Amino acid sequence: MTTIQRQSARSSDWQSFGDVPESVRETDHYQQEYIEDFADRWDRLIDWNARAQAEGDFFIRLLKQHGARSILDVATGTGFHSVRLLEEGFDVVSADGSPNMLARAFRNARDRDQLLRTAQADWRFLNRDIHGSFDAVICLGNSFTHLFKERDRRKSLAEYYAVLKHNGILILDHRNYDRLLEGGDAVRQGKGNVYCGEDVRVAPAHVDDGLARFQYDFSDGSTYHLNMFPLRYGYVRRLMSEVGFQKISSFGDYKKDIENPDFFVHVAEKEYCFDADSAAR
Ligand code: SAM
């Protein structure tokens, strides 16, 4: 028998994790987690104004510093970064594996007088559905954590790498799972960050080495969950370098300081710098 976690007014729209939600550790499951009802509420979780304030111009400065003009947002979600970048004059393609999230993103952009160029694409097969090459790929909002198998992470990073121009960059973020795995808080008390909405309480419901299950309680009494893989800081950096990225710079909470932040941001550079010294040895 299947336990229903949350039923929306639309009867086909369910979050379903089965009898043992902690056993759901599958990459493909994100498709069933971002149901239409949850997609509709996502913006209450991430309050666009508060988030814009928390981030400031961190990503815009980074992209400009690297001379990026064309951006592929691979985890568009409801469109926060795609819209911000369009407003700043970047050339943006907005991809996501979830049609519900893309539909919401399109509407959000239209409400702000922006037209999104959307493409439904799973990261593991990105180059099958996305054509062209980009100065930057962004994978933000703790999205990469949806991949449960190491081979899915390697494949997705390789797909991001392949869609970049020769000197392109990947910007990818994730929660500070190291702290969570060591028994600490997901978010430090009283601190606004990526998820800034006041209408929702976010807390881990289960954490072990292979799963971080988060619960989202909204003020209207509705509850949703996301099952994610807890990515460690050093592990993500290692994978990026193993798939071929040449230089990785990491930030904590949008600053260079990486001491105990809520979120890490990694900037991985593709450009191959020939090291004449080591070649001569
Ligand atoms: N970047 C947005 C933000 O910051 O608000 C959305 C973040 S949301 C946590 C994660 C997004 O990643 C969802 O929209 C989900 O559909 C997408 N996603 C998860 N796994 C994916 C995959 N394998 N391929 C493509 N998209 C995926």
Structure description:
With 281 residues, the chain is α/β, with parallel strands linked by helices. The protein has a single domain, classed as Vaccinia Virus protein VP39 (Rossmann fold), CATH 3.40.50. 32% of the residues lie in helices and 26% in strands. It contains 11 helices and 12 strands. Mean pLDDT is 88; it is low at 1-12. S-adenosylmethionine (SAM) binds at residues 27, 30, 34, 46, 75, 77, 80, 96-98, 101, 122-124, 140-143, 146. S-adenosylmethionine binds at residues 27, 30, 34, 46, 75, 77, 80, 96-98, 101, 122-124, 140-143, 146.
Summarize the helices and strands and which ones pair or pack:
Layout: E1 4-7, E2 14-16, H1 30-33, H2 36-46, H3 48-55, H4 58-65, E3 70-73, H5 80-87, E4 91-96, H6 99-111, E5 118-120, H7 126-129, E6 134-139, H8 150-163, E7 164-175, H9 177-181, E8 200-208, E9 211-218, E10 223-228, H10 233-242, E11 247-252, E12 263-269, H11 276-280
Parallel strand pairs: 3-4, 3-6, 4-5, 6-7
Antiparallel strand pairs: 1-2, 7-12, 8-9, 9-10, 11-12
Bound molecules: S-adenosylmethionine.
